[in-house]
Amino acid sequence: MKLPAQVKLVDVGPRDGLQNEKQPVSAEVKIGLVHRLQDAGLKEIEVTSFVSPKWVPQMADNAEVMHGIVRKPGVLYSVLTPNMKGFEAAIAAPRDEWPDEIVVFGAASEAFSQKNINCSIAESIERFAPVVEAARAKGIAVRGAMSCTVGCPYEGEIAPAKVGYLAQLMKGIGVQRVDVADTIGVGTPRKVQAAMEATLAHFDVDAISGHFHDTYGQALVNTLAALELGVWNFQSSSAGLGGCPYAKGATGNVATEDVVYMLHGMGIATGIDLDKLIDAGVYISEALGREPNSRASKAIRTKRAG
Ligand code: HMG
Ligand code: MG
Predict the structure, then answer these.
(1) What confidence tens digit (pLDDT) does each residue in 192-206 have?
(2) Which end of the chain, N or C, is less surrounded by CB atoms within 10 Å?
(3) What average pLDDT does the segment 73-89 reach?
């Protein structure tokens, strides 16, 4: 099967990567990470989230981070907004500090929806609808993250029909593109393809992205499985940071470095400079006092050290 010739990666490290960190990370360091990612050639960066600081304290500096980043032309900056309160906070700043895209985030699992955003799937869609409408009226793009599309920490395996149902609801309220997320990294290629296919019934392939956590070491093969279906948008975190505070035991997103290494090795263009990306991962890992969680980064740095 012919694979896509190019892939667009969204680095979600500043948001998904850091939201789960217990140690405080300064706004300055977060801004430094965004700058390094855009210099490495990332064209989309998920910067922060406008959620309750009581639920996710690490993202409490959302406005400060959005204010501090010096934007690079051609780069799309997105933020999570679960409700109108979050959306209003995201656009409280002057227009040039608004996000280019907001993300509403729902789940294919009822139990995860309750734990993560404190409401049912149906209620979440009711909350998202005015957010989507307000964003689109202001010319802000809207993405919908769909969590637990293959497995849930509370409900176990998730049937593809539940993913299709959520995708249909998202489409119905005007969400323009969706992320098929394996929040806890339990998916394997055929299951991920089934979740993708259920989504493809409602969204064009160009409007679907893969978001794979690497808990069981399956994220790269799952990426390949999605590529086989023609999916060419993926989310990943530099240095493999991350995890969701409401998905216990789940580790970070697949490392952007590892995805880029795989894609470049397959002749698939990303526009990303792997060396600069590795340095971005080292920067944030040093700030956190640990090694980057990326095999490609480790191998290349070992080689560099000669
Ligand atoms: P709630 O408690 O149901 O909301 O939270 P509420 O409307 O009843 O309000 C309760 C309090 O929260 C009030 O404050 C509100 O003002 C405040 P109080 O009167 O008690 O002082 N509040 C807010 N504050 C700031 N920003 C807001 C906001 N909304 C209400 N936007 C809510 C509902 C969704 C806000 C809450 O459950 C929450 O913040 N959850 C955090 C969810 C989160 O960030 N999860 C991690 C991101 S999702 C993820 O990681 C998965 C993903 O990566 C894909 C994947 O891998 O699956 C995207
Ligand atoms: Mg995630």
Answers:
(1) 999 999 999 999 999
(2) C
(3) 98
- CATH number of the domain that 54 lies in? 3.20.20.70
CA dist 203 and 233 (Å) reads: 13
Of all atoms in ligand 1, which is nearest to the CA of residue 81? 31
Q: Is 65 a member of any domain?
A: yes
Each residue's pLDDT tens digit, 122-154: 999 999 999 999 999 999 999 999 999 999 999
103 is in which domain, residue-wise? 8-305
Active centre residues (catalytic): 244
Residue 3 covered by a domain: no
Name the residue at shortest CA distance from atom 31 of ligand 1. 86
Does 228 fall in a domain?
A: yes
pLDDT band for position 2 (cuts 50, 70, 90)? confident
Q: Which amino acid is at 37?
A: L
Q: What would the pLDDT profile of 285-297 be if each residue is shown by its tens digit?
A: 999 999 999 999 9
Measured by CA distance, the residue closest to atom 28 of ligand 1 is 52
Of 197, 211, 198, the C-alpha closest to 165 is: 198
pLDDT tier, 247 (very low <50, low <70, confident <90, very high otherwise): confident
Is pTM beyond 0.85? Reply is yes
